[in-house]
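Aggregate trends can hide what the representation actually does to any particular protein. The sequence in question and its C-alpha cells are set out directly beneath this paragraph.
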Amino acid sequence: MEEDAKLKTDKIYLSVVVPLYNEEGNVELLHERIKNACVALGKSFEIIFIDDGSKDKTVEKAVNLSPLKLIQFRKNFGQTAAFDAGIKEATGEIIVTMDGDLQNDPADIKLLLEEMDRGLFDVVSGWRFHRKDTFMKKFFSRTANLLRKILIQDKIHDSGCSLKAYKRSCFEEVDLFGEMHRFMPAILEMQGYKVGEVVVSHHPRIHGVTKYNWKRAIKGFVDMISIWFWRKYANRPLHLFGGAGIVFSVVGTFILIWMAIEKIFFNASLAEKIWPLIGIFFILTGMQLFISGLLADILVKNYYKNRDQMNYSIKSIINN
C-alpha cells in the first residue's frame, strides 16, 4: 500500500516542453515564469528545455536552472524535431508546448488546462487573438491559416501558436517531422481526438530575433500538402493515383484521336505538333515528381518508425 501511495505521489501531472535556439536573453526569465505558473497550479510538474544547436550562451545559462531537464541537440535540427524529442522525454499526464521567446505567456497554461477540463478536450490550442508580431509575420501566418482551412479543413484559428496542451495519449502513435508541430491539432482531429481552442496572451519579442522566415513558410506549406494527402488518401492511395492515371489516359487518348483526325482528314503533318507534346511532357513530369515526393514522405516516416529512430541526434540529457 505504501509503495502504491508513493507511486501516485511521484507521478508527474504536467510536462512543459520548450525548444530553444539562440535564446540566451530569454531562457532564465522564461524558466522562472514557467516554474511560477506551475507552482501556482498546485500540481506536480517538470520543465523540459530542448536546445536546438544554439550558438550563443543559451545552454550555459540553462544548465544551472532547476528544476529542469535539458536536452541538447548536436546541431540545429529544427523546432519540430525539438518538440518531438521533448515530448518523448516527457512523463506528465498533460504535455504543454510553447515557444522559448517569451511571446507565449506561461500564466496562460492555466487557461489551457481549464478549457481542457471544461470541454473534455484531448487537445487545447492557444489562439493569439491580439498578435504582437511584425506585419510580414502576420501576413505569412494569416495566409498559411487560410490555406490550412482550405486544404486541411480544421476548426483552429491559429494553428501556428505553439502554446498548446495535449493529453499524453495523443502522442502514443505520432512522430513529428518537417514543420508538422503546427498541424498537430489537425492531425489528431483526423485520428478522432477532440480538439478545442482558447484565447491566450501574446507579447512582443524583447530579446533575440525571430527564427521564422520564408524558408520555414515554404516547408510549412509542403507539410500542409502532405497532411492534406494523408487526410484524404492515406488509407486509399489508389483512389488518387488510379484516378489521376485514368484522367491522364483519357486526355492522352483524346489527343491521339485528335492527331489521327488531323492526319487522316486534313492531311496535317504530325511533325508540326511538337509543342503540344512538349506541354504534355512537362505536365506529366511535374505530376510524377510531386507524387514521388508524397510517396517518399511516407517511406521516410515508415523507415524511421520501423527502426525506432528519429531524424535527429541527442548529445546529452541533463537532469537538475
